[in-house]
Amino acid sequence: MNMATKKLHRMSRVMPQKELDSVSHARRTMGNNRAFEVLWQAQQYWLAMETFRRDRERNKNYTYGRQWDDYVCVNGKMMKEEELIKKQGNVPLKNNLIRRMVQAVLGVYRSQAKEPTCTARDRDEQRYGETMSTVLQCNMQLNRMTEINARCMEEFLISGFVVQRKWYGWRENKLDCWTDYVQPNNFFIDNNMRDFRGWDCSCLGEIHDISFEDLCGRFAHSKADYDRLAEIYKYAKDKSYLSAMYDNFGYPLQGYYDFLVPYDQSRCRVIEVWRKESKERVRCHDVNNGDVFKVDMEDFKELVLDENEKRLQQARELGMSEDDVPLIRYEWFMDSYWYYYMLTPFGDILEEGETPYEHKSHPYVFKAYPFIDGEIHSFVSNVIDQQRYTNRLITMYDWIMRASAKGVLLFPEECLPKGMSMEDVADEWARFNGIIMIKQPKAGQALPQQIANNCTQIGISELLNMQLKFFEDISGVNGALQGKPGYSGMSASLYNQQAQNATTSLLDLLDTFSAFIRDGAYKDVKNIQQFYDTPRVFNIAGKNSTIVEYDPRKIRDVEFDLSIVESTATPAYRALTNDMLMQLWQAKAISVEQLLEHGDFPFADELLQSIKSQREQLEQGQVPDGMSPELAQQVQQGANMQAVNQAQQMLQPQ
Q1: Domain count of the fold of the chain
Q2: Which is higher by pLDDT, 209 or 430?
Q3: Within this chain, do residues 583 and 501 fall inside the same structural domain, yes or no?
Q4: What percent of the chain has pLDDT over 90?
Q5: What angle do CA 288, 292, 295 make, to 5 degrees?
Q6: How crowded is residue 509: how many other Cβ atoms within 10 Å of its Cβ?
Q7: Backbone phi and psi for residue 556, each to the nearest 5 degrees, phi listed first
Q8: pLDDT at 380 exceeding the cut of 90
Q9: What pLDDT was estimated at residue 648?
């Protein structure tokens, strides 16, 4: 056969392709339908958290007083316990002990007044750690983190799962690093995760329900983008087609949670998915400066091979041995990296890409408790049974008291006088200072009498006290921690020891939440290092001395360690600092300016400004306001003598 007549096929067509990039492989094989694969995986993870959402809703109901909302089956019909009790003619009473317990733990958390502090790993760069601590605290003040963390702590107690989102962008016409609270019902994670730290998570995401205006502000970068969004969310854009959704503000949605369809049809649903993708890359180690980095295959020749060739050429020119040249060492590996998708429920990809953050992770920070075998059990769930039994005893107590005889009058008909009916007797009996005439009873005939039956002393009080004791024992929140006064004769040391013991029982819960705060502060620091690219001056509100200048060129590559320490913003710390500074000033170890700059006095700024203004006036030869003429003359003479002495020193031969 003539070789010229043979058809030459491309190798890529006759041999199966080995696509090592998972994203490129999905684009090639599924095309525009690849968003549905991501949506399906995210929906499976979201559905796997249905048990958690149901338990969270129940815990929230018990915390906020809706404690008879559990469903029971009566004659094949499902109804709430509250409805069943009302049908039986009783009143569903409750005594909310869980809310008091949660408030007590929140008080303990707020009283700790802890905050994250940065420490540079290299001790020579410790001054940068102090600067970063100030910048981090200013960012926390910007985001109102004191309030956010308190509400997140309440969420942590109720559901055992807390999430925050750390991102950088525009908000309220300000470009900065922001922190958002994420409702756990709208969040999903990989159900194969078992690491308490969350390091083995491979997929997570959040469901966003936003207005059409916010949607365009986030994803519309041109007129074509706006037209595309208007076509996708045409019903949400044209609000005239939608019925108003003005009810249920501040109340639960009665269990309505859907992955694709929002409860309010005027909102635009965007599903954010972060998952691990893989591709081939090269891990490199530059022994010349110690840097460790990774490069893509398309950049490998330019950044590694060409650089090694340049170093070898330079070594030949210098007469160095090739074995002595510090080359870049490298190895091929499959890299697992975070990739994000912004999806619509209709399979459209609004935005996608590799993580833009230099910490190379997702923007979320989450903590589940205790997460043994992937299970989440909240602090509130431990005492629900005691709360239910307490409510049952109270309701039973009320029913018995209402059903028992209280002041029932037994009036024999033979004693009824003429001219009076039983209704008249009842009215006269209930009247103050009433008089009832009766006939003379015959021998052996009963007289009218009142019956009061006390059926309440059947042990309910003892059972109720027992449940209240169990409630404190199980939760660890006793009377001392709640601020209740001790019994008569209790010593102060014993009372303090009881409060300390109660705090110890909550230590695991509080330290776990502190680890969550530390993880969030770490991502804040990384975002600040990445996005604060211009020098800035920071000052913590309420502190005169904490004014620092942030230089991104010096701090960008510094590695920090985060620790949670006692806050310096507490009144006790400020009083201790002021006392120490006053002692140093009285010992003439510091000046008045240093006292005002480093102390925390309400008049420090005004007084310090006044002192500096008087000093400038004196240096210019002016008389400060409020200074007597005699004192001004003495100051002027002192200044003239100082000038004469300086002139004499200059004229003296060296």
Answers
A1: 3
A2: 209
A3: no
A4: 37
A5: 110
A6: 21
A7: -60, -40
A8: yes
A9: 47
Asked if pLDDT for residue 404 goes beyond 70, the answer is: no
* 410 and 497 co-located in one domain: yes
| Confidence check: pLDDT of 5 > 60 | no
Output the pLDDT for position 527: 94
Residue at 384 is within a domain:
no
Same domain flag for 576 and 499:
no
> Both 420 and 502 in a single domain?
yes
Q: Extract the tokens encoding 508.
A: 């695991």
For the record, the structure tokens of 140 come out as: 């926390």
424 and 500: one domain? yes
Show the tokens assigned to 122: 């290299």
Q: Which of 336, 361, 384 is the C-terminal boundary of a domain? A: 336
d(CA 187, CA 165): 11
Q: Which of 362, 316, 315, 310 lies closest to 337 in space, CA to CA?
A: 362
Amino acid occupying residue 58? R
Residue 586 lies in a domain: yes
- Say if residues 575 and 602 touch (Cβ distance below 8 Å): no
DSSP code string of 1-42: --GGGSPPPPHHHHS------HHHHHHHHHGGGHHHHHHHHH
Q: Which of 506, 536, 553 is the last residue of a domain?
A: 506
CA gap 407, 453 in Å, rounded = 8
Q: Mind listing the pLDDT tens digit for each residue in 480-512?
A: 565 565 555 666 666 666 666 667 778 889 999
* Single-letter amino acid code for the residue at 512: T
| pLDDT reported for residue 1 | 45
The phi and psi torsions of 188 (rounded to 5 degrees) equal: -140, 150
548 phi and psi, to 5 degrees? Answer: -130, 160
- Domain extent for 647: 571-651
> Does the pLDDT of residue 438 top 80, yes or no?
no
Produce one character per residue of 249-275: b if its CB has 16 or more CB atoms within 10 Å, e if not: eeeeeeeeeebeebebebbbbbbbbbb
Residue 192 belongs to some domain of the structure: no
Coil, helix or strand at residue 537: strand
Residue 242 is predicted with a pLDDT of 56
Residue 65 lies in a domain: no
Q: Specify the residue for token string 């990384």.
A: 526
* Mean pLDDT, rounded, for 313-331: 89
341 has which bridge partners? Answer: 273, 352
